[in-house]
What we know:
- It contains 1 helix and 25 strands.
- The chain is mostly beta strands.
Amino acid sequence: MKKICLFLAVLTLASGCGNSSDWTIGPFTRxxxxxVISPDPARIFLCPMRGEEVRWQESDTFNPAAAVKxxxxxxxxxSEDNSATGIGSRTSRVGYxxxxxxxxxxxxxxxxxxxxxxEWGWLDCPGGCEDPRxxxxxxxxxxxxxxxxxxxxxxxxxxxxxxxxxxxxxxxxFADALGGRLMDEWSKSASIVTKVNEDDELVIEKFDGKYLMxxxxxxxxxxxxxxxxxxxxxxxxxxxxxxxxxxxxxxxxSDLTECGPPAVHTKDGIVLIYxxxxxxxxxxxxxQVLFDVKNPTKVLDRLDEPFFVPELPFEKSGQYVDGxxxxxxxxxxxxxxxxxxGCADSFVGVAVAGDK
Length: 356
């Protein structure tokens, strides 16, 4: 068990020169020149929120999580119906797909996580359930972090499952933290820290009795938990959220630094893959940052250039025309890394990397 020191204080963070990439995960190569999941208006679902059938996969399919179960890669992707026009104005649901080659997808007919029909309507309705990330415990419990959007406030929420198809929602991750002060604050995008175990599986790791989760969109913060459901964000000495990394002027992440798939504890430290948005171009590209495992708030290195950028037509021609590769799904499968990502807020793509 690793000993870590979690200070609720202002920390001096190494800036990270970005000149060495020996610690990074990758490099990644696209497995397909086409999207692996695309919109499909033929899929119809009886929506408990509306009380009527909806074409839940009609408009856009993007921002996927990924996990491995029963010898298959399972991809859980955000899907938007065609209930309105414009980014953020439709209803999102989470669909389920399986693949044995990483590319050819068998998609379930109905979404597996959706708004309505439960006690969480005040969080989910009418915007829905967005942008999942998934990590698994050693005993096979899958933990999903996702965004609930009621079209007023986006909140980071937690759900759990044993089969990736039937999910139990647990509500807002920070509901009990800090006296409830974050209840009405915007929060999203969380990466639970994992490791590769002896069976070459990516599983959630515990550090000195606590789980760790990087989270955030405008900047990256760190939170801790003892049960993977209730999380407490870290604060600085002034009582503000601890800004571990934030946008850098003039670089690919000058506007946003948004957490990607589950972070990975490697021999070099904790590697967080994140999504950087450029204030100059509007494009989303993927970066990596290395944290000290003994002090997970300390940056050891950070790439100055993105390792993954929009290149193919479907990565630049969806509803987000400035171009997007938005990474959220990372798994170990057949001794390789598979990275699943959203393309221009409209499609799902995949890339693969071997071990160095």
